[in-house]
Amino acid sequence: MSDNPLAGDTPIDFTQISSKQAGEALAQMTKDYQAANPDAMPETPAEATAALAAMVKKPLPPIADPIGAALAGELRNDIFTTSSPDSPMLSPYKLNETVSALREIGFPDAGVRRIIEGTPTTKEEVEWARIEKERALSDNAFVKAYLSGSRRERHWMTGLDAILAGGVAESK
Q1: Selection from 124, 131, 113 nearest residue 171 by Cα
Q2: Coil, strand, or helix at residue 84?
Q3: Residues of the chain with pLDDT under 70
Q4: What is the 8-class DSSP label of residue 164?
Q5: DSSP H or E stretch at residue 79
Q6: Structural contact between residues 95 and 145, judged by C-beta atoms closer than 8 angstroms
Q7: Among residues 35, 66, 105, 169, which one has the fewest Cβ atoms lying within 10 Å of its Cβ?
């Protein structure tokens, strides 16, 4: 039997070898990987800096419609984004989470988009939503079902809250 833990094609069971053998195996695996993928890993700090600079020069293209991408299931959670008070934006993770939650309680994609965008509504719609919310919250059966997580009541209350939160469209 060989002392080389890499001998043969069977995977290494690191629980069955010494820490010294594991270190040697990992060093050999790293060397083999680098030999097979010479551009994959920089070996010096200067190479690492150059690789990072190359990555920074190739930013991901901006997502024209992040809500549409989330609705299509194509928005990656690992994309870094920025927002400002002038241009608020949910992170991709939060946007995907919001789309999923709204769909779970029954909102169609058009409703999901309207809620996330905060599309302003008319004064009449806001007044209607305010009255309906008061009516719903004064109904003990509704409140009990809503607080117990009823899909229908959650959908209704979320829809009313979205209308109220969206604000009133300015008249032209």
Answers
A1: 124
A2: strand
A3: 1-12, 14, 38-40, 55-62, 78-88, 171-172
A4: H
A5: none
A6: no
A7: 35
> 50 with 42: CB under 8 angstroms?
yes
Token pair 């690191």 in the structure block, residue? 14
83-107 as b/e: b if 16+ CB within 10 A: eeeeeeebebeebbebbeebeebeb
CB of 100 within 8 A of CB of 112?
A: no
Q: Is 80 exposed, middle or buried (0-12, 13-18, 19+ CB in 10 A)?
A: exposed
| Burial (Cβ within 10 Å: 0-12, 13-18, ≥19) of residue 40 | exposed
The pTM score is 0.50
Residue 164 is which amino acid?
A: L
Backbone φ and ψ of 87, nearest 5°: -140, 70
Which two tokens mark 127?
Answer: 């007044």
